Amino acid sequence: MKQNLRRAVNITALVLAAGLLIGLLTGCSQSQIGNSKPQPGNSEPQTVTITVKGDQNVIVNEPKTIEVAKGTKWSEVKLKVNVSYKDGYKAKGWKFDDESGSDLYDALSFNNNATVFAISKKIPQPNDPDLFKTDGNGTITGYTCDKEDLPKALVIPGKIGDEVITEIGERAFYDCKGLTSLDLSGCTSLTTIGNLAFFGCMGLTEVKLPANLTTIGESAFYGCTIETLYIGCNITDSIISNLTREDSVKQHLKNLKLGEGVSTIGDRAFYGCMGLTEVKLSANLTTIGESAFYDCPIETLYIGCDITYSIISCLTQEDSVKQHLKNLKLREGVSTIGESAFQDCTGLTNLDLSIYTNLTEIGEKAFSGCKGLNEVKLPANLTTIGLSAFRGCKGLTSLDLSGCTSLTTIGQEAFFSCTGLTEIKLPATLTTIGNHAFYECKGLTSLDLSGCTSLTTIGDGSFSGCKGLNEVKLPANLTEIGKYTFKDCTGLNEVKLPANLTEIGGSAFKYCTGLTEIKLPANLIQIGGYAFSDCTGLTSAVFEDTNGWAVYSNESYSGTSTPISSSNLVNEQTAAWYLCQRYDSKYWKKD
């Protein structure tokens, strides 16, 4: 029994010793074991304090310390941080403690108090030479900053240190999607843009090319959505084929401006650029190649060069340009608009040339067939409106040339078949109205030429077919009315012939069925055949001088003549019968 008692005491001692050892190992007293409740004053903190600092270019705003729950991740902490940067600097990253600390990352948890340190970096400037890498021989090979820090508006200098830039190397700016504009115009020695140089720069919308560029490599601008393009060099196939023939450029190009030194645009240069709506041509341009602007719906055209058919026709005679051209701007010193320059440009609605004070001549067919044209303003110094210059401009409703105080000549068929024209005003300086100048202007209702004090002759058929014309006032110094001048003016019911008139051409008033009376002045010596033929309403013809009249069978007034007795012309009804019926086909002449 004593032996069993000794064994029980030993077991109890072992248990107590084991408990004491466990307590020592766990840091707990014998009283904490089995008691899970923490003792007052010994609980661990549940928050941590984050102190915010930064380098010399960082401005730490309040709060400069942030208290967050223990275990909060950096992705949440940084949302509470308020820092800004000095001008010319931006965020580069965050580190623990200071610049030499380890990097912070979003998944990092804060379980203890800590210091976070903001690191800044300089914002690259668009024209900073230090931004670019070169090969030491004039070729730009890339950039020194991170791709995302590359300026959106990139200006490449012509010289970096002592190194003259002659080439943009292959893949130099490959896939720089953040680029929005590129200015190479200052690179006066740049001749080559290498293969893939700006490949994939999908944000690039504006490009300026320099004067001496000769080569653009394959896919140099692939994927670039260029909208505005300035070209300072002659546009040859080696330059343009790898630019405007990229589908992305064809689809997006809207504005084109040529530098002053550009003299040539090659064949098919902008072929199929179906978004191109605005073009500015240079002062020294002499050649536009075939189909250079095929399918380009140009709406606004600025022309800095001479406007001659040989230069301009390959642009304005494209169907897409004819249909869409609405706004026309010329260089300040332009003196002539050449032959057929804007013929059949049906999209033109308003033409204001009044500001071009050096413009003196509008050439043959210059605006012929511009059916949409409803308003024309011409400059004071204009002297000549050429043959068929505005022929078929059916949208014109009024024409005020009274301010063209140097205008002397309106050419043949100049306003032929401008059927919408209801009113015209002509200047005192006018000396010539060409044949058929206003032929079939059916909308005209009245014609006042009385102020045209220098006008002595009205050309053949000038107002023929103006069926709406009911009143005509002729100038005092007029001496000749040409053949067919008022033929088919069926509405004409009143015309006063001036005292100085000496000749009325053949068929001049033929078919003027509304005319009821006519007074023929004493100075009149010649009336052409059919001059008053078929004037069925004419019942009164007053000859102020009835003596010496005879009629001939031919226009040359040769051969046998038939005298007309003065007594047959004294009576106005009889005179009208002789004039309109008996001798209507004859050629009248007074000796």
TrEMBL record:
Database matches in PROSITE patterns: PROKAR_LIPOPROTEIN
Domain of life (superkingdom): Bacteria
Range of residues in the leader sequence: none
SUPFAM superfamilies: L domain-like
Species: Treponema denticola SP33
Pfam families in alphabetical order: LRR_5
InterPro entries in alphabetical order: Leu-rich_rpt_Cys-con_subtyp, LRR_5, LRR_dom_sf, Surface_bspA-like
Protein name: Leucine-rich repeat domain-containing protein
